[in-house]
Amino acid sequence: MTTSPATLEVVARLDDNPRYRGSVHDDTVAQRMGYRAALLPGAFVYTYAARLAVSAWGMDWVEAGGMAARFRRPVFDGDLLTITADAEDASGRCPLSVTNQLGEQVMTGSLDAPLREVPTVDLSFHPHQDPREPMDADRMQPGQRFNTTERVLTAADIAASRTAMCETHPVFLHNDVAHPGCLVRLTMDDVLRSFALPMPPIFTEVETRHFCAVRPGDSVSTSAMATRVFERGGKHYFISEEYLVLDGSRIAARHLRTNLFQIDQAQK
Q: Which InterPro entries match (predicted)?
């Protein structure tokens, strides 16, 4: 990537999507819960940090790069974030840190160099059901499959995602490709729509690898399953392995995501 650290400053901005109303991404709700402002979704902070990788490796990273992100504390609408990637080590990995204007570390992780190896995966697609089946910590088990709805991604979809996350990097504009925040949200939305969960899940960690660019006109779907279910201090998590698939067979990205989906009553 580079022989010296790379740094970027970004003002965190939350769009006005109606999906946030009544959630912790709504100022009124967040302040009622004791927060100073609406919390930014993890996908936004992930997107901001990925800009350093795109600046370093360009389309090579969009098509074959990787990233890891662990969200350590909330990011609020209006925060000034400083994103720093250290020099690339022998494995092609750049340690990553994001801090806010108070000097608090809000995210750690790494940016990973392009690696053009596509895995062999047993893909499985299950359509979304209505009404959604209830799912809680007692029912969620490793091997649980998640659902999907196949859709054609339009130029308007990709442009709307860029606008929502303030993504203006020339690589995405000039090559007409979806940015990483768009991809991570596609698989996340399918997984989280699959069941009626006890609470709105909190995206706490992700490991990503890209295998090709996603462009307008691509038909996208998700093949995903729970690989691990665990409890820590009265908080229940599942890890979902999510493959974004084009035209039913071509893997575009893998997201290994950690989701907090239930908190015991004593912890609330």
A: HotDog_dom_sf
